[in-house]
Amino acid sequence: MSTSPLRFGANYTPSQGWFHHWLDFDLDAVRADLDSIAGLGLDHIRVFPLWPLFQPNRTLIRPRAVEQLVQLADAAAERGLDTSVDGLQGHLSSFDFLPAWTGTWHRRNLFTDPDVLSGQAAYLRTLAAALADRPHFIGMTLGNEINQFSGDPHPDPDRVTPEQAGAWLTRMLDACEEGAPGKLHLHAEYDAAWYQDDHAFTPAHAAREGAVTAVHSWVFNGTAQRHGRTGTATEHHAAYLIELSKAWALDPHRPVWLQEVGAPAPLIPAEHAAAFTEATVANALDCEDVWGVTWWCSHDVSRSLADFPELEYSLGLLTNDRRVKPAGRAIAELVREQRGRTRKPAPRTTALVVDTGDEVTAPRRSVCAPGGAVFEAFARLTADGVRPTTVLASKALDPGHLAARGITEVVTPDEVR
């Protein structure tokens, strides 16, 4: 069970130029952004190099771009902020960023083509190695929700099998470890990994590969539409994903990083963003083994930039002119309350049975999605004050497994009324 201090951070979205800032990198503007993030009392940022700008050719990783990434991380450290770096961007806020050597005339599968794999591994290894000696470097995440490229609803997917996805994860995580041994290297998927029956990236991948499990909690996935902005399922969605991940974890106390969570308008109106933030984080903190909470995102997207989905413009803790928003004040207050405390939430003794078929490929994992039997039963139990967790059907009668997790009662979705 984790008793280490909880980490609080933000996904860094540059206030000037969004992630296109790498094209016109301005260290002074970055420093001003980092000052505003540090002013909230946060202790880390998650940073997103744009893959095509850093590796425009399969055998060219631009030294100047890597140098700028290191400068950003060093500037963060000067302000008391540790840095986690996502490598393969990949996908950000509805836009795809893939290098030309993977598309059109050079179209080849991102997850299986030998040349693409060697290029990706070299790139991740290079970024990791550039930061390996920095004590403020947390580690690498392979990419931001890169699993969305692997199947529907992507308009041009690079289809793979779960076995191929697993092989890709292993190779890329190994490359990160080679570059920066001993750092916190992980991968991160959007919630199709937990909710979509035929998705190649599976709950077992998420909960068993890498140093920690990452979950990205977005209530625009049908949760808020179904349960409303203050519904139990909405305010506990992040906690649900944290507890759902534990069903597949082999380590009974594997750390879970709530790596992305935000308050998307209009489902969460601006005037309710602070209340949603407070409730979501408080409920996540009621889970054991949480490594940290990293809010999406640091700064709003400027309205001068075109074609973003409407909700993407207003997700920041700060405006794009660096003024603190109500959600930012809520986070700052939570950080002040938690600073120096040692977390030790009580075990969740009631486990809801999760039966998705084969536990490795989870062919029936839609039961875990909004509207599914597991999701709705978890919400009902939570509304009744039960504080549930989850357990795979294959482990539900294993006394050793249950004891290791502190589970004393097991219920099925059909038994929840």
TrEMBL record:
<dbReference type="GO" id="GO:0016787">
    <property type="term" value="F:hydrolase activity"/>
</dbReference>
<dbReference type="InterPro" id="IPR017853">
    <property type="entry name" value="GH"/>
</dbReference>
<keyword id="KW-0378">Hydrolase</keyword>
<protein>
    <submittedName>
        <fullName>Glycosyl hydrolase</fullName>
    </submittedName>
</protein>
